[in-house]
Design a protein that fits this description.
Chain A: InterPro entries: DUF5682, LolB. Chain A: Pfam families: DUF5682 (PF18934). Chain B: One of its GO terms (molecular function) is ATP hydrolysis activity. Chain B: InterPro entries: ATPase_dyneun-rel_AAA, CbbQ/NirQ/NorQ/GpvN, P-loop_NTPase. The complex is a heterodimer of chains A (766) and B (370). Chain A is of the alpha/beta class and 766 residues long. Chain A has 4 domains: 278 residues, no CATH class; 75 residues, no CATH class; 86 residues, no CATH class; 121 residues, no CATH class. The longest helix of chain A is centred in the C-terminal third of the chain and has 22 residues. The longest helix of chain B is centred in the middle third of the chain and has 18 residues. Helices cover 46% and strands 11% of the residues of chain B. Chain B has 2 domains: 220 residues, P-loop containing nucleotide triphosphate hydrolases (Rossmann fold); 133 residues. Chain B is globular, with a radius of gyration of 23 Å. Chain B is built from 16 helices and 11 strands. Classes of the chains: A alpha/beta (766), B alpha/beta (370).
Chain lengths: 766, 370
C-alpha cells in the first residue's frame, strides 16, 4: 500500500518528498512515523534539528535515550542549546530507523551556530525548548499563537474537546483501520488551516528556519536522493510542501535571500544523557511533556497498555509494602475501562488509570495513590552515551574517575554517607569536593541526621542533572582533569578573594586534597592578613582555618603549615583586638561578640599556647571602660568559664558594671553578654544572682522600663528549664547573709517582697 | 409485607419525599432520551446517571438540576464502579454529601432509594441477612412465608441497589456479614436449606466516615470488596456557598417555610466562619485560628441557615439577619462547653471583630454568648 503524503515538487522530476508533521515527544506520532517510514522506504531522512549534529548520527546505535543533543560555544560553554530526545520521540525513532536501515540522515533546522550567535547578541541566558527558541518574556496576546506553534496538535485536540493531545491522537489517528491512508497529509492540511488562522506570516526567525529546511530538502535532492522523508514539527509541515500548492511554502530564490548574511558562531555538538524528570513539565521545562513515564509506557508496551500499566503500579505499591492483589488489578482495569466508556472515550487514558489506582489499588488513600502515580508518570530514567561520543577532556577524565571509583551518576536524588577512613569512599568525597569547587554540584553536602562528632563521616545529597554536563564543559577551561581544573580554579580564586573567603577556600582545598594549590592559598592568606587592617576580617578568617587544621589528622595532609598560618593570624587578632573593640555602637558590638565567641572556639582548637595568648588578651581587655557592655560581659563569661577569673572577681566586675553611677543600658548589655548562651550560672552562683537582684530592684522606674526589653531578650533566650530553676532560686527564701543585710525579723516579709518577686518572675518567666 | 398498613402514606404529605419521587420528572426525561447501553437491571445508562447527578439538560429540554456539586470525577468513578458490579464505598468527613450521593445514585440506577440499612452500634446481623416472623415460625415451623427479608435481601431479589449507611458504626462482626453477599452474590438461608441469589442489577452502596469517634474500622477482607471514593470537602468557598444556598432553598420549600428573601451575604458569612474554623486559618491565609472539636460540615452550615430562616420567618422581621444565625453558629461550633468556648471566643475577638463589615454579626454573637 502506497502512502500518500504531502509532496513538495521543488526537486527534479520523479523525486518524492514526504513531509511527516509530528508532535514532539508524542508516542503516537512516533509510531505513525515508524509505520510511514517502513512503507515509504526513503533513501534519505531529514529531521528537524541542528545540522552540526549530522556527524553524531553514527553514534545513534550506541546511545541510550533519553538523551539530548547539546550544542555549545567552545569558548563560552554557558551559551548552549539542547534538543532532548526520548525513546518515544518521533525524531528519535526516525534516527533509529535511518541507523538500522543504513539510510542517509540529515538535520535540517537552522544551524545551532546561528541560534547561539543570536543568543550571544541578545545576552538573554535562558533555558531552551526543543526548537532552540530562546526564552523571552511574551505578552498574553501572543501566547495562543505561540502555544499553537509549540504544540499545534494539542490545540487541535483541545478544539475537539480533549484534554490530552495524546488521547486525541490515539482516537483520531491511531485507531484507524488498516488500509486507511497515512495521517500525515491530513495533518499538513489541518496545520495549513491553523496557520492561516493564527499566524499567516511567520516571524522572521520562523521564516528563516523554514527556509533552511526547504534549502536542505533541495540540497538533498540535488545530491541525488530520490525518496525523502522529512520529519518536522506539525506546525512546519505546510511550509515544507510544494510552494505551488501551498501558500505557506516559498521558492528557492526567496529562501536564499532570507538566509543571506546570517551570523554564526563556532559550535561544538555532542550527545549528553538526559532524564525523564527534565522532560516533564513538572520541573519547569517549558516545551516538555506532562507524563514522560506514561508516554514511554504507551510507546514501549507491545499491547494492552492499561493492563500493563496497572500491573506495574501494583508492583510499585507492593514494593512499598502495600498489600495489592491481582484481584485488585483486575478490578482496577475494569473500572478504568468503564470510566472511559462513561466519559465517551474509546480507550482509557492517564486520568482513568489514575482514578482506578486511587479507588481500587489504594482503597481511597489519595496520598499513597499520588506517590505511586508520580513515580510511574515521571519515572526517573537517565540516558547514556557511548564512550566515543565527542567529549571535552575534562568530561573523559570525570567519566574515567567515576568508573574507577564505581560511582555512577544517577538521576534519582539520593543521600549517601561516606566513611572517610576507607580509601575509595574518601576518594569519592574528594571527587565531590573538587567538582563543587569547579561549579559542578553533583553532590551537595547534607546535614547529617546521625551527626557524629568525628570528622570521618560525610553526608552528601547526590543527583546527576543533565545541566551538569554543561557545567563540566564550562569548567573545562580550568583544566583537562578534575584535579587540575580544581587546582587552577582554587589558585584563581585565591588571587582575588578577600580574607574570610580565602580561609574558607583553604578548608575547601583541604577537603578536595588539592595539595598543589594549598601552599599558594595559604601564602595568599598570610599576605592578605598582613595587609588587612580590619581585625574583624582576621577574626572571621580564623575559625575555618583552625577547623581545617583538624582535618590533617583524618586526611593525612600536612597540617603544620596550616597551623603556622592560623597561629600567626591569631597573633594579629590578639594585638589588634583592643583598639577594635573600643567605642562600638550596638550593632557592631553584637557582631564583635559573635566574632569573639568564634575566635575563642578557634583558639581552643589551635592548642594550649594559642588559647593562653587569647585569654591573656581578653583579660586585659575585659576591665577597660571603653569596651561596650556586651563585649565586656562576654569576655568575662569566657574568662570565667575557662577558669581565668574567679567568681569573686566576676561579682566585683559585675557590681562595678551595674553600679548606680553607670548607665543602666550599659549594665543590661553587660548582663546580656555575660549570660548569653546559658543562664545556669545564675542558678548555681547565688551571690551573683544577689548582685543582679540588688541592681534590678534598685533601679528607678524610668530606668527599669528602659532596660526591660534588653533583659527580656537575655532571659527569654534561655531554655525553659533554666528559667524555671532560676525562678525557683529567686522564689526560695534566701539566707540573710547572702543579701549582705542584717537579719531583721523571723523571716522574709513576703508581703513586702511580693512586688519585687512579681517583677523578677515577669522578667525571667518569659 | 407490602399490604397497605396504617404506616403507608401518600407522597405529597411526606415530610421528606424520596429522591426518586422528588425528581421523578427528571429521571423520566432522561430515560426517554437515553439510547445508550444500559447495564442489566439499570433503568438508565451510566452516562445518563452521571448526567442526572451532575445536572444539565435532557434531550427534551427538561432542566436537570445538579445533585452533586463538586468534582466531576467523583461522580464518574462512582457510577463506573457500580456499572462494573463492584460495591461502592463512599468515605468522607461528616456532611460531605455521602448519604445524599448514595440516595441519588440508587434512585437513578434502580428507581428505588428505600432499600436502606442504617448502621448503628446496635445494628444486628438480622438487619443485613433476614429475620423471622416469630408467630408464623412457631405456628408453621421454618418456611419461606415466615422469613422476613432484610432490605439487602430484597434488593438481591429485585436486582436493585441496596444502601448501607454509616457502615463503620456497625459492630465488626455485623459488617463482615456483607462479605458473602459481595463476593458470592448470594445469601444462604441455612434454616430452609436454600439461598437467595442476587439478580442482575444488584449492587451495594455503603457510606462511612473517617472522622467521628466510635467507629469500627472495616476488616481488610471487606474493604477489598469495595471500590473506595473519598468525597472531598468543597474546594472553594464559592462552591460551598452554592451548595448551602441550593439546599436551603429546597429544604425551605419542603418544610413550607414562609419565603424569606435569599440572604446570600448571610450564607456567605456562615460558610466563611465554618471554613475558617475547619481549616484553622482565615480565608486570606493571614491569621491562624484554633479548630473546635466539632466537624463543622457543610451539612451543619445548611442546618444553621435553615434554622435561621425559620427563626426569621416566625419570630423575626422576615429577613435573615445576623441575630438569626448567631445562636446556630455558636451551637454548631461549641460542642464542648469549655474548650470549644475558648476557641469560639478567640475567633470572635481576633477575626470577626476585626472585619468592619462583620460588626453586626460580632454584636449578635456576643449577645448570644452573654
Amino acid at each position: 500500500m502506497a502512502v500518500t503524503t504531502a509532496r513538495a515538487g521543488s526537486g527534479a522530476a520523479g523525486s518524492d518528498v514526504h513531509v511527516l508533521g509530528i508532535r514532539h515527544h508524542g508516542p503516537g506520532s512516533a509510531r505513525a512515523v515508524l509505520t510511514a517510514l517502513e512503507e515509504l522506504e526513503p533513501d534519505a531522512v531529514l529531521i528537524e534539528g541542528p545540522p552540526e549534529a549530522d556527524t553524531l548520527t553514527g553514534l545513534v546505535g550506541a546511545v541510550e535515550p533519553p538523551v539530548a543533543l547539546l550544542a555549545y560555544h567552545p569558548d563560552d560553554p554557558a551559551t548552549s542549546a539542547f534538543w532532548p530526545l526520548a525513546t518515544f520521540s518521533p525524531e528519535w525513532q526516525a534516527l533509529r530507523y535511518a541507523h538500522d536501515h543504513d539510510t542517509a540522515v540529515r538535520f535540517c533546522d537552522l544551524p545551532a551556530g546561528v541560534t547561539l550567535a543570536e543568543r550571544r547578541a541578545d545576552h538573554t541566558p535562558g533555558t531552551e525548548d526543543e526548537n532552540g527558541q530562546p526564552e523571552a518574556p511574551e505578552d498574553p496576546a501572543d501566547r495562543a499563537a505561540r502555544r499553537a506553534r509549540l504544540d499545534p496538535l494539542a490545540v487541535l485536540a483541545e478544539a475537539a474537546g480533549y484534554d490530552d493531545a495524546e488521547r486525541w491522537w490515539d482516537d483520531v489517528v491511531e485507531q484507524r483501520d488498516d488500509g486507511e491512508p497515512s495521517p500525515f497529509p491530513a495533518i499538513t492540511e489541518a496545520m495549513a488551516a491553523v496557520r492561516t488562522e493564527l499566524a499567516p506570516e511567520p516571524d522572521e526567525r520562523e521564516a528563516r528556519r523554514e527556509a533552511h529546511m526547504r534549502q536542505t530538502i533541495r540540497a538533498a535532492l540535488k545530491e541525488g536522493y530520490e525518496r525523502l522523508a522529512v520529519i518536522c514539527g506539525a506546525w512546519h509541515a505546510p511550509a515544507l510542501s510544494d510552494p505551488k500548492t501551498n501558500a505557506h511554502a516559498k521558492t528557492a530564490t526567496a529562501d536564499r535571500a532570507l538566509l543571506r548574511g546570517l551570523s554564526k558562531v563556532k559550535t561544538n555538538v555532542t550527545w549528553v544523557p538526559w532524564t525523564h524528570g527534565r522532560l516533564s513539565t513538572a520541573s519547569g521545562y517549558r516545551a516538555g511533556v506532562t507524563a514522560p513515564g506514561w508516554y514511554h509506557h504507551l510507546f514501549t508496551a507491545p499491547d494492552r497498555p492499561i493492563h500493563r500499566w496497572l500491573t506495574d503500579t501494583a508492583r510499585v505499591l507492593r514494593d512499598e509494602d502495600q498489600p495489592v492483589s491481582s484481584a485488585h488489578v483486575i478490578e482496577a482495569v475494569r473500572l478504568a475501562e468503564t470510566l472511559a466508556t462513561v466519559r465517551g472515550r474509546p480507550l482509557a487514558g492517564l486520568s482513568e488509570v489514575a482514578e482506578a489506582t486511587s479507588a481500587v489499588l489504594c482503597e481511597g488513600e489519595e496520598s499513597r495513590a499520588q506517590l505511586a502515580h508520580r513515580r510511574m508518570v515521571v519515572g526517573e530514567r537517565l540516558g547514556a552515551v557511548p564512550e566515543d561520543t565527542p567529549m571535552v577532556p575534562l568530561q573523559r577524565d570525570l567519566a574515567a574517575t567515576q568508573r574507577a571509583l564505581r560511582f555512577k551518576p544517577e538521576a534519582l536524588s539520593k543521600r549517601i554517607t561516606l566513611d572517610l577512613r576507607t580509601e575509595r569512599q574518601r576518594d569519592r568525597s574528594v571527587l565531590l569536593h573538587r567538582l563543587r569547587l569547579i561549579g559542578v554540584n553533583w553532590g551537595v553536602p547534607a546535614r547529617d541526621q546521625v551527626r557524629s562528632r568525628g570528622t570521618f563521616r560525610e553526608s552528601w545529597q547526590v543527583q546527576w542533572a543533565p545541566e551538569l554536563d554543561v557545567a563540566v564543559i564550562e569548567a573545562s577551561r580550568w583544566g583537562t582533569t578534575v584535579a587540575g581544573a580544581a587546582t587552577a580554579r582554587a589558585r584563581d580564586l585565591a588571587a582575588s578573594a578577600e580574607l574570610p573567603t580565602l580561609t574558607d577556600l583553604t578548608e575547601r582545598c583541604l577537603l578536595a586534597e588539592l595539595t598543589d594549590a594549598l601552599p599558594e592559598v595559604l601564602d595568599a592568606v598570610a599576605r592578605r592578613a598582613a595587609a588587612d587592617r580590619d581585625v574583624t576580617h582576621l577574626m572571621g578568617a580564623l575559625p575555618p582555618l583552625a577547623r581545617s587544621s583538624r582535618y590533617g589528622d583524618v586526611r593525612g595532609t600536612d597540617a603544620e603549615a596550616l597551623r603556622t598560618v592560623a597561629d600567626e593570624l591569631l597573633r594579629r587578632v590578639c594585638s589588634g583586638l583592643a583598639p577594635a573593640v573600643a567605642n562600638l555602637d550596638d550593632d557592631a558590638a553584637t557582631t564583635m561578640t559573635g566574632l569573639v565567641d568564634a575566635v575563642h572556639t578557634a583558639a581552643h582548637l589551635l592548642g594550649a599556647d594559642a588559647e593562653r595568648r587569647w585569654l591573656d588578651t581578653l583579660d586585659t581587655l575585659a576591665a577597660r571602660e571603653v569596651v561596650p557592655g556586651l563585649v565586656a560581659g562576654r569576655a568575662h563569661r569566657i574568662l570565667h568559664d575557662s577558669g581565668r577569673v574567679d567568681s569573686a572577681t566576676v561579682r566585683r566586675r559585675l557590681g562595678l558594671a551595674v553600679s548606680r553611677a553607670g548607665d543602666p543600658a550599659h549594665a543590661a548589655a553587660w548582663l546580656e553578654g555575660f549570660l548569653s548562651g546559658s543562664g545556669m550560672i545564675l542558678a548555681h552562683d547565688h551571690e551573683l544572682l544577689a548582685v543582679v537582684d540588688t541592681w534590678l530592684t534598685g533601679l528607678s522606674d524610668g530606668a527599669f522600663t528602659a532596660v526591660l526589653p534588653l533583659l527580656r531578650r537575655t532571659f527569654g533566650a534561655f531554655a525553659s528549664p533554666e528559667r524555671r530553676s532560676i525562678g525557683e532560686v529567686v522564689a526560695r527564701p534566701r539566707p540573710a547573709e547572702d543579701t549582705g543585710q542584717p537579719h531583721t525579723g523571723p523571716g522574709i516579709d513576703t508581703r513586702r517582697a511580693a512586688p519585687a518577686m512579681t517583677t523578677v518572675a515577669a522578667i525571667i518567666g518569659g | 409485607m407490602t399490604a397497605a398498613t396504617p404506616l403507608a402514606s401518600s407522597t405529597t404529605e411526606a415530610l421528606r419525599p424520596h429522591a426518586e419521587q422528588t425528581y421523578a420528572a427528571e429521571i423520566e426525561a432522561l430515560a426517554k432520551a437515553d439510547d445508550r447501553q444500559r447495564p442489566p437491571g439499570w433503568q438508565l445508562s451510566p452516562w445518563a446517571v452521571a448526567q442526572y447527578l451532575l445536572g444539565g439538560q435532557a434531550a427534551d429540554g427538561t432542566e436537570i438540576t445538579p445533585k452533586y456539586i463538586g468534582a466531576r470525577r467523583v461522580v464518574e468513578v462512582a457510577v463506573s464502579t457500580l456499572a462494573t458490579d463492584r460495591a461502592l464505598l463512599l468515605i468522607g468527613v461528616p456532611g460531605t454529601a455521602k448519604t445524599w450521593l448514595s440516595e441519588h445514585l440508587a434512585a437513578a440506577i434502580s428507581g428505588d432509594s428505600t432499600l436502606l440499612v442504617q448502621g448503628t452500634a446496635g445494628t444486628a446481623e438480622e438487619a443485613i441477612r433476614y429475620s423471622w416472623n416469630y408467630a408464623r415460625l412457631l405456628a408453621e415451623g421454618p418456611s419461606e412465608e415466615a422469613l422476613v427479608p432484610s432490605p439487602i435481601m430484597t434488593a438481591m431479589g429485585r436486582g436493585s441497589v441496596a444502601r448501607v449507611e454509616e457502615l463503620t458504626r456497625m459492630p465488626s462482626d455485623v459488617q463482615d456479614a456483607l462479605i458473602t453477599v459481595l463476593s458470592e452474590k448470594t445469601l444462604p438461608v441455612a434454616e430452609l436449606g436454600t439461598e437467595a441469589q442476587a439478580q442482575r442489577g444488584f449492587n451495594l452502596i455503603a457510606t462511612a466516615n473517617d472522622r467521628d469517634r466510635g467507629v469500627n474500622d472495616l476488616s481488610s477482607a471487606l474493604r477489598r470488596r469495595f471500590n473506595t471514593v473519598v468525597l472531598p470537602v468543597p474546594d472553594s468557598a464559592e462552591d460551598e456557598v452554592d451548595i448551602v444556598s441550593r439546599r436551603v432553598e429546597q429544604l425551605g420549600r419542603s418544610l413550607d417555610l414562609p419565603r424569606v428573601p435569599e440572604s446570600i451575604t448571610e450564607i456567605r458569612r456562615v460558610v466563611t466562619v465554618f471554613r475558617e474554623l475547619r481549616s484553622g486559618v482565615t480565608e486570606d491565609g493571614q491569621t491562624k485560628v484554633k479548630s473546635p472539636s466539632g466537624t463543622l460540615s457543610t451539612a451543619e452550615a445548611i442546618s444553621v441557615v435553615t434554622n435561621g430562616i425559620a427563626l426569621a420567618a416566625h419570630f423575626g422581621d422576615g429577613r435573615l439577619s445576623p441575630g438569626d444565625v448567631a445562636s446556630g453558629i455558636r451551637g454548631a461550633v461549641v460542642q464542648d462547653r469549655v474548650s470549644d468556648g475558648v476557641v469560639w471566643d478567640e475567633y470572635l475577638e481576633t477575626v470577626v471583630r476585626e472585619r468592619a463589615e462583620w460588626r453586626d454579626l460580632y454584636r449578635a454573637c456576643r449577645e448570644v454568648g452573654a
